[in-house]
Write a structure and sequence with these properties.
- This protein is of the alpha+beta class and 325 residues long.
- The protein has 9 helices and 12 strands.
- Strands 7-9-6-10-8-11-12 form a 7-stranded mixed sheet.
- The longest helix has 17 residues.
- Bound molecules: adenosine-5'-diphosphate and magnesium ion.
- Adenosine-5'-diphosphate binds next to α2.
């Protein structure tokens, strides 16, 4: 193993986790966010960076919207723990030639979204650098019983908080070349903070992840952490309305592997189903179940089963290109 390309994003994280060893905290490396006891309380901690030409392109949306996006994708990881964001830090990198107005607009967007969510921008950093990078850290309130990637149990149902594929489709269309003003702005994800909180506080779920890399890959993270497998009913997966005009296979491909949904994927025992469906409107949807074994199996409408292709976003994988956090 010589390069990050050989190791892959998740291989790298596994090596880092080995270097760290046991950090002696409630939840350390390996979940959507860490949970740490500090003084008398417990906090949720997460950080994620958006890098120009990896996660976004200049001109795809206004700098203000980009700032809002940076908050949303980080808040999504807090939501995936059942936490509530309470304070945020923004570290920005940009070249000397950068428009000061644009940079302040990124901060306006970020600070606005952060304030609206009760997680004011309380600090950060600025540095010169070759491209735009927006690195965010959020600190949040921890639920008594967090939603963990290792909390899925055999027999649980698998739920998704809402329809999938819209953001991946918008990105594909942009990448396919269509430029600038002929396109509506990329959809802005809304982090599922209220849903995550309710699932944790009402003890409806023990296991969740936010969908950033793609349904299959993110569900595989839950399976691997929990030591279980999962079956997904292809017919049950809710597709975003924007996908309806695509061929069925193309739409499913985006929903299964496209990524950037920032929806919650979670598991719960079947007896909690009615209470979960009453939590939000539209209601969370059952898309499969947790089974003994490992990995994700796709079940089509005729009952035919096949193992899901392990495709999703890897920062150092082949074909890694402008997307996700
Ligand atoms: P997410 O997509 O939910 O943000 P990631 O796949 O980025 O999660 O990260 C998975 C886990 O690995 C998280 O717990 C994250 O904090 C941890 N992690 C990622 N990169 C590093 C790093 N460089 N050092 C320590 N922990 C890391
Ligand atoms: Mg996540």
């Amino acid at each position: 193993v010589k390069t990050l390309g050989d190791l892959g994003e998740f291989g790298l994280i596994a090596r880092v986790a080995r270097i760290v060893g046991d950090p002696g905290v409630e939840i350390g490396i390996g979940d959507d966010a860490a949970i740490v006891r500090i003084g008398g309380g417990r906090v949720v901690l997460t950080t994620d960076a958006l890098v120009e030409d990896v996660h976004f392109r200049r001109g795809w949306e206004t700098p203000r919207r980009l700032g809002r996006r940076a908050f949303a994708v980080n808040a999504s990881d807090v939501a995936a723990m059942g936490g509530i964001p309470r304070a945020s830090l923004l570290s920005i990198v940009a070249p000397r030639s950068e428009s000061a107005h644009d940079l302040l607009e990124i901060h306006r967007g970020f600070a606005g979204a952060a304030r609206e969510h009760g997680a004011p921008l309380v600090g950060g950093n600025v540095s010169g650098g070759p491209v735009r990078m927006i690195s965010v850290t959020l600190v949040g309130e921890a639920p008594r019983r967090p939603l963990r990637r290792d909390g899925a149990r055999v027999g649980d149902l698998v739920f998704v908080g809402g329809p999938l594929g819209r953001n991946a489709l918008a990105r594909e269309r942009r990448l396919a070349g269509a430029r600038g003003s002929r396109h509506p702005p990329l959809p802005l994800p809304s982090p599922r903070i209220v849903l995550g909180r309710a699932l944790a506080e009402r003890r409806l779920s023990r296991a969740a992840i936010d969908l950033s890399d793609g349904l299959v890959q993110d569900l595989e993270h839950v399976c691997a952490a929990s030591g279980v497998g999962a079956e997904l009913e292809l017919e049950a997966i809710p597709l975003a309305p924007a996908l309806r005009r695509l061929a069925r296979d193309a739409a499913l491909e985006l929903a299964l592997h496209g990524g950037e949904d920032y929806e919650l994927l979670f598991t719960a025992p079947a007896r909690k189903r009615a209470a979960i469906e009453a939590l939000a409107s539209p209601a969370p949807v059952v898309i499969g179940r947790i089974v003994a074994g490992s990995g994700v199996v796709l079940v089509d409408r005729t009952g035919r089963r096949r193992r899901a292709r392990p495709a999703g976003f890897d920062h150092f994988g082949r074909g890694a290109r402008g997307r996700r956090g």
